[in-house]
Amino acid sequence: MNESTGYVQTEVHQQVGIITFYHPQSNSLPSFLLEELTKAIQRAAHDPQILVIVLRSEGEKTFCAGASFEELAAISDEAAGRKFFMGFAHVINAMRKCPKFIIGRIQGRCVGGGVGLAAAVDYCIALDSVEIRLSELAVGIGPFVVGPAVERKIGTSAFSQLAIDATQWRNADWARRRGLFAETHPDTEAMDEAIRNLARSLSHSNPEAMAEMKRIFWKGTGEWDSLLAERASISGRLILSEFSKKAIQGFKR
User: Fold this and answer.
1) CA dist., res. 246 & res. 128, Å (int)
2) How many structural domains comprise the chain?
3) Is 192 among the domain residues?
């Protein structure tokens, strides 16, 4: 664990695997954290001591701020850009392929890739105060890699609204009514109690039945390995544009 650069850690309590990520810049995700998060999900998927997974982040204000602006600003060619955005593709595909249900704990704002994580979990529980935003267009790209996960969860119309109006925050009620959040709660205590209750219930359910249910829920996504790779290439090209470079510098100031 290195709090100065961020970390991903996994704890197991009564057959519930709790995966926690942290980065000092509002839980943003540089490449190494995306890689660690992918590995943690894959390990939990194959760990016989884990029957259900909870994905959470540290802190109170932000669940995940999406891509690391520091790393985006440093991308110098299309190959490097594609490699960076493939980090998000790998995380989403690891969650998709995991045979165990993943519960998302959303305690703060979700931006860009953070919305993608919330969409890729199987059951999302959030605070009433949470806000979400797909900010990619504001930095000259688009939510290409996370888009399939978000569109699958909330539908094309709601996804397009988020993607087009990249500067507007939507509240938790908006997200719940469109299916991104399954439940919202007024405070952390109530949210965490709901997560514990669901995780406990699932940990006593038939693992084979849950795996079959998850396979059905994700029907039609078998081509996502190649689809998300194609989307990563688009983002990797666009992030090199003069528009994107200027926009990223503006956000960093």
Assistant:
1) 34
2) 1
3) no
Q: Is position 150 within any domain? A: yes
- Give residue-wise pLDDT tens across range 64-81: 999 999 999 999 999 999
pLDDT of residue 248: 87
Look at the chain and count its residues.
253
Spell 210-249 as b/e; 16+ CB within 10 A means b.
beeebeeebeebeebeebbbebbbbbbebbbeeebbebbe
Closest to 235 measured CA to CA, from 120, 92, 79: 79
pLDDT in tens, 186-221: 999 999 999 999 999 999 999 999 999 999 999 999
Residue 241 lies in a domain: no
Report the CATH number that the domain containing residue 88 is assigned in CATH: 3.90.226.10
Residue 58: which domain range? 7-187
| Token output for 65 | 């701020």
- Confirm whether 213 is domain-assigned: no
Q: Structure pTM?
A: 0.95
